[in-house]
């Protein structure tokens, strides 16, 4: 159990570092575009059209930076729980609250990313048509279905992980109640 927790601690630390590197990478690309003005980077895994104004690009980049910072905060909270687990402090209210915060935070993150990828996808893909001779209603319906499906496909793993973390939080909370009752029993 101790070696598994040590591996998990290393894994959580590497996740925090990788998110920090990704945050720095996004920031660097925004600064690079501001100074040299070459090409816009992908935001929410979508290519921003070159004909969009720079204000939209900067606004969406700022949102992406804030979301990456939020994910880094959630990972640090999760890392604290793992470190508490390695200190044999498993069933505590603090761990339960932190896990609940991480689970809710991941759900909020997933909803925000889902909204932005869906809306941006509809705006970007909505400007193009499938073919010039096709029915506009059919074209719009296809683009809407494809965009929503692709957006859900991107964030579904986040929702599954968030629900799993919420479930673990519930178990840790119940374990804390049982532990307190057991401590009171003589």
What do these coordinates show?
The radius of gyration is 22 Å and the shape is elongated. Helix 1 packs antiparallel against helix 2, helix 2 packs antiparallel against helix 3 (93-126) and helix 3 runs antiparallel to helix 4 (136-184). The model has no long low-confidence stretch (mean pLDDT 87). Helix content is 81%, strand content 0%. The protein has four helices and no strands. With 186 residues, the chain is mainly alpha-helical.
Task: Give the secondary structure arrangement, pairings included.
Blueprint lengths: L1 H35 L17 H33 L6 H34 L9 H49 L2
Can you tag this structure with a few keywords?
single chain; 186 residues; mainly alpha
Can you describe this structure in just a few lines?
The chain is mostly helical and 186 residues long.
The ordered string of helix (H) and strand (E) elements is HHHH
Output the radius of gyration.
Answer: 22 Å
How many DSSP H or I helices?
4
Oligomer designation? single chain
Overall shape = elongated
Residue runs with pLDDT of under 50 for 5 or more positions: none
What helical percentage do the residues reach?
over 70%
The overall pLDDT average reads 87
Task: Count the E strands.
Answer: 0
Question: How would you classify the helix and strand content by structural class?
Answer: mainly alpha
Give the termini separation: 29 Å
Beta percentage is under 5%
Q: Major sheet: size, sense and barrel closure?
A: none
């Amino acid at each position: 159990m101790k070696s598994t927790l040590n591996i998990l601690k290393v894994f959580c630390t590497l996740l925090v570092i990788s998110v920090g590197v990704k945050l720095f990478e996004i920031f660097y690309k925004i600064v690079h575009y501001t100074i040299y003005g070459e090409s816009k980077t992908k935001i929410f895994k979508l290519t921003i059209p070159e004909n969009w104004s720079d204000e939209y690009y900067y606004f969406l980049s700022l949102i992406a930076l804030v979301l990456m910072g939020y994910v880094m905060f959630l990972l640090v909270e999760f890392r604290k729980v793992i470190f508490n687990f390695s200190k044999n402090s498993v069933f505590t209210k603090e761990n339960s609250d932190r896990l609940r915060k991480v689970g809710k935070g991941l759900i909020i993150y997933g909803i925000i990313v889902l909204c932005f990828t869906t809306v941006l996808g509809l705006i970007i893909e909505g400007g193009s048509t499938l073919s010039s001779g096709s029915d506009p209603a059919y074209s719009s319906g296809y683009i809407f279905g494809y965009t929503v499906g692709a957006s859900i496909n991107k964030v579904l793993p986040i929702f599954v992980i968030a629900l799993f973390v919420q479930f673990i939080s519930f178990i840790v909370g119940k374990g804390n109640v049982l532990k307190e009752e057991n401590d009171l029993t003589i």
